[in-house]
Amino acid sequence: MAATMEDAPKVQAQPYTFDLGHLLVTDTNPLPTLTTTNKEAVLAATAQACAQGLINQLLTACPIIRSSDGDLQIKLPDPTFQLPREKPVPKEKEKSKWEKFAAKKGIKAKRNEGKLVFDEAKGDWVPRYGYKGKKGDGDDWLVEVADEKPEKQERAGGKPEKGGRGAPAEAVKNRSGSRSGTGNVMKRKAR
Amino acid sequence: MLPIREIKPKNARTKRFLDNKGPQITENPRTTLFLRYTTCSDILQLVLADLYALKRPLAVKFSKKNNIHPFEDPSSLEFFSEKNDASQMVFASHSKKRPHSLTFVRFFGFKVLDMIEMSVETETMRTLAQFKNAKAAVGLKPLLSFSGSAFESPTANAYTLAKSIFLDLFKGPDVQNIDVEGLQYMIHFSVDEDDSEEVKPMIHMRCYLIKTKKNPNSTTPRVEVEEMGPRIDFKMGRIKEAEPDMLKEATRKPKGQEPRTKKNVETDIIGDKVGRIHLGKQDLSELQTRKMKGLKRSRDVADDEEAFAGAEDEVVFDPAKRSKVEV
């Protein structure tokens, strides 16, 4: 059964409201009283008016684009009628101890500085470290040996050796073990 | 019934599966489960099959009988929901007290959020197959329309709940673009006017194929509708509204999802996009005007400039300074 324009209700007291994201049209006009004889015709007429309104709205209010495979597509806006979610909003991941500390101190993640640095003496870009790097400055190829022999011979200009062995490593281990939820539980039990 | 035990993923495939099932910021479309009670009339079975046909492929239909009373004890339904990752359910039951009743259930986090029970009017029911015409393709997003004032009540009642549940049931997946060819059918819900106090108004569900004809007088086409079935009239039964706490949790929006407001871009009444651009202050002294002999700088530049500066001092009008004097 096809409904035509003639069946459509002529007077529209209230305009339709649309939610194009859901392809939804709401018609708040009261439905005419249905009798057994005219019921389907009236329903089809209201449905036809709704469909006409919705399609007109879709074609006028939404941008129509031609997709890569040549089909005409209507770009829909976001839906406005809020429906309940299916599952709860995912919980945010808890911040690690370091992230909390960094946030408190305002420490930002280190930016990638790049491999090359500008060497003003050479007037050129050189590697930050390594072969022909800026850091080493392998120009002082001749180094004088000190008179009295120290424990360990050091090159002048070289980096001083970091703290001795043994004790600090143990301290670090204790520190990480004391924090709850971190460190190797099995090792701690064994100690 | 015991809750399903928590699984810790042992391999990547299980992890992917569990991540897909778990809470997500942008959610998967709801899966609908179709179930039946131990007794279920022929008419109801036909209705269930037709609703399943409209809902495919986002639906699962079980044929075994289940001795479940959703309004008394929904725990079995919750188990089914979790097991099948289905957050919507249509439960068909037929009994002497509540004949031909369909219960639409919506879940939140595998717990019942809200329920609505409606009984199918047997005389007016027509199935999909009873209309001898071409049907819409499977899995298309339908147009939806709700007619009647009861659906738009300002206070939450059975009809606003019905609208929300029907919209959720039939809207299909949320999409950005829709093919013009994909606008094939419309599901139309209409509600009678509330005349008498005793009888609650009925909801009529009709599905129509949409035929568009070229309209010679306008740019938009002329739309015609042709019924394709199913045709169902629902009488309102019991409802279970959502608990306020649960509803609040279910309507919460994830943070950081709202789009950034575009500054300086507006759409005017006609529908044209208008942008505002801020430029720096223009230096008019550098302005290149038409070159004329008369405007050329004379040789005694110094004198000229002095005269000009003096003139400027006199002409300048500073509203800020003047207001200071008045105070």
UniProtKB/TrEMBL annotation, chain A:
Subcellular location per the Swiss-Prot or TrEMBL entry: Nucleus
Basic and acidic residues bias spans: 84-100, 146-164
Span list, region Disordered: 78-100, 128-191
Entry's Gene Ontology BP terms: ribosome biogenesis
Swiss-Prot/TrEMBL keywords: Nucleus, Ribosome biogenesis
Any Gene Ontology CC annotation: nucleus
Keyword Isomerase in record: no
Domain of life the protein comes from: Eukaryota
Role played: Involved in ribosomal large subunit assembly.
Similarity field: Belongs to the RRS1 family.
Protein name from the UniProt record: Ribosome biogenesis regulatory protein
Organism: Oleoguttula mirabilis
Automatic annotation (TrEMBL), chain B:
Organism superkingdom: Eukaryota
A GO molecular function held by the record: rRNA binding
A biological process from GO: maturation of LSU-rRNA from tricistronic rRNA transcript (SSU-rRNA, 5.8S rRNA, LSU-rRNA)
Keyword field: Nucleus
Major subcellular site: nucleus
Residue ranges of domain Brix in the record: 30-245
Record bears the keyword Nucleus: yes
Coiled-coil annotated spans: none
GO cellular component: nucleolus
Pfam family, one: Brix
Family membership: Belongs to the RPF2 family.
Protein name: Ribosome production factor 2 homolog
